[in-house]
Amino acid sequence: MTNDSKPLSNRSKPGARTASRQGFVPAEAARMAEAMKVPGLPARLAAAHILADVVQGGHRLDECFSPLAVPTRLTGLDARDIALTRSITTVALRRLGLIRRALAILLDKGLPRQAVRLEWPLIAAAAQILFLDAADHAAVDLAVRAVRLEPKSAGFAGLVNAVLRNLTRQREEFLALAESGEFDAPPWLAQRWRKTYGDAAAKEIIAMQMLEPPLDLTVKSDPADWARRLDGVVLPTGSVRLSSRLPIAELDGYAEGEWWVQDAGAALPARLLRARPDERILDMCAAPGGKTAQLALAGANVTALDRSAERLKLLAANLGRLQLRADIAVADATSFSAPPFDAILIDAPCSATGTIRRHPDVAWTKKPGDVETLALLQTKMLDRAATLTRPSGRVVYCTCSLEPEEGEAQIAAFLRRNPDFRRDPIDPADEAIPENFVNADGDLRTTPQMLPNPDPRLAGVDGFFAARVVRRG
Question: Could you say which of 285, 350, 398, 400 is catalytic?
């Protein structure tokens, strides 16, 4: 599987990272103010800026849409424009490999050396032309307007116009190219997945990541009733999956705290811990709080630990809406100290490659070396958890990664280092989960193409690994 989804220019210059974080803010504020009056243009400008922030600057897509984002690209945008910006950036990142390939064909000599930042308005416009329901003339015209606002790029407005018009003429050719899936994942990830899961499964994983994910809910009680009330279905795992795309806060039961949004795969690790009333349980890396809520709902005395005070504020707000409680602690999980716990849940920081369908930026911001770096952190967290677990206590370790170094290999190494722990194999029948979710070692392993459904809106699950171990004694 080859992939030509490289930047349209390979040139690197000192200070390029700093420049990318600044985006392409026009030198003249008056010109920007005038541009903001053109319908649809502010959203296209914001989308191009955010794409640069994510792919070049390493920012997370979700963080770019946070009110606390630095830099913020959403100033002055109304709710409709923000939604359009999010739609463009999400689709552009999900299909970045194919879009870059199409533009490389149309720009056979690459981008002009003095206008490398043309790539981002071109990518934003191409996402609309190829994959969104936007009028071709509007996508082309607004991209040209955006380029003219940048003094260093304004002279290439004619080139942008020509490239995008050719893209509209050759749309079907490029959409046929998209069907091969050849350009839908960075080469290093595609190669990893072929090695780990085989060619056929790797192709299925990548294909699933190109689809918009469904909305899953964890409900406090009676999943069948909530599925009926919210026009959803109950999954084999017990989560409720919705077919609607209504704003979350407008759905029945949200204000009353009857449920929370949580992918079906993400809902499994906390269940595997088998929390019991009044047990002392530590939730490492707890924010934003979905797993904490599950443990608190079971009646456990939960300590929600995270090193980010800001993320713990979000956790506290979520627990408040759900009318659940936990003790909140701001600390580094690798050095946290406390009396031994009955059970510990480690939702460890990871490459998050199992969540690319929900977070398409992950595919383009993570690098091969990140897996090794994160695996070292996971090792430290596991070993710290071992010291905080009482005899006969339980630990569930999980990551939303498809990479074996962060899952299967990590738990195997932990058991070799800690002979006072043993694996507690997961029984699909006991846990009420599909048999194919459990591997030969008795650990949880989901991949995105699992939970197939004829309706793509109801198919798939995030990629997760989880293992349950028990301290002897």
Answer: 400
Phi-psi region of 99 (alpha: psi -120 to 50; beta: other; left: phi over 0): alpha
> Is pTM, for the whole model, over 0.85?
yes
E strands within 383-453? 389-399, 421-423, 444-446
User: What pLDDT score does 28 carry?
Assistant: 54
- Strand pairing report for 280-284 and 259-261: unpaired
CB 319 within 8 A of CB 326: yes
Yes or no: say if 119 and 2 are a contact pair by the CB < 8 Å rule. Answer: no
- What angle do helix axes 136-148 and 157-169 make, rounded to 10 degrees? 160
- Residues sharing a CB contact under 8 Å with residue 34, sequence separation 6 or more, in sequence order: none
Does 400 qualify as catalytic in the annotation?
A: yes
E strands along 357-463, which residues? 389-399, 421-423, 444-446
CA 108/CA 40 separation, integer angstroms: 30
Distinct helix (H) and strand (E) counts, the chain: 20, 12
Q: Burial, 71: exposed, middle or buried (Cβ in 10 Å; 0-12, 13-18, 19+)? A: middle
Structure tokens at 285: 């890396």
Give the chain's mean pLDDT.
92
Task: Please count the CA atoms within 13 angstroms of the CA of 164 that sit on its side-chain side.
Answer: 30
Q: In whole angstroms, give the CA distance from residue 92 to residue 127.
A: 5
> What's the rounded Cα separation, in Å, for the pair 442 and 468?
9
Domains, the chain, ordered by start: 16-179 (1.10.940.10), 264-471 (3.40.50.150)
Supply the pLDDT for residue 125.
98
* 296-305, Cβ contacts within 8 angstroms, sequence gap of 24 or more: 296/324, 296/325, 296/326, 297/220, 297/324, 299/275, 300/275, 300/276, 300/343, 301/327, 302/326, 302/327, 303/327, 303/328, 303/329, 303/338, 303/341, 304/328, 304/329, 305/329, 305/331, 305/333, 305/336
The 10s digit of each residue's pLDDT in 240-278 is 999 888 889 999 999 999 999 999 999 999 999 999 999
Distance from CA of residue 217 to its chain's centroid?
Answer: 17
Q: Is 179 exposed, middle or buried (0-12, 13-18, 19+ CB in 10 A)?
A: exposed
